[in-house]
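Work Package 3 (structural annotation) set out to generate three-dimensional models for the target panel prioritized at the project kickoff. During this period the team completed the workflow that converts sequence records into C-alpha cells, so that structures can be stored uniformly alongside our sequence database. As a representative example, we reproduce one entry of 104 residues exactly as it appears in the project archive.
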Amino acid sequence: MNKAELLKALQHKLGTDVRWAHRGLQAIFKNQTADEQDGANVKYHNTMGFRCVDAHLLTSFTTQLQRRGFLSEKQNAILLRKMPRYGRQLMKFYGEGIAKSLAA
C-alpha cells in the first residue's frame, strides 16, 4: 500500500470504527503540549495536537474517555465525524505501526 492509500484507509477507519477513533483521539491528545492539554486550547501552531475549533470539545472527550472508559453514542458520532481530519498527523507519528495494524 502506498502512502496515499494508507492515509485513505486510516481516515476510513477513524471515521467508521469507534475503537480506532478512541485510540486516535488519545494519541492526538498525547501529542499536545502540557499547557494545551491543561487549558483545552491551542497555543502553538506546531502541527501537533487538536485544531483550534476542536480543542475544547476533543479535550473533554479525551478526559471523559480516560476517566470513565467510554463516550456516549452521541459523542462517538461526533468523534467519528472529526477524527478523519487527524489521519495525516497520526501517519506522521505512528505511520509504521498504523500500516501494520491496517494490514492485519
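The two ends are 13 Å apart (CA to CA).
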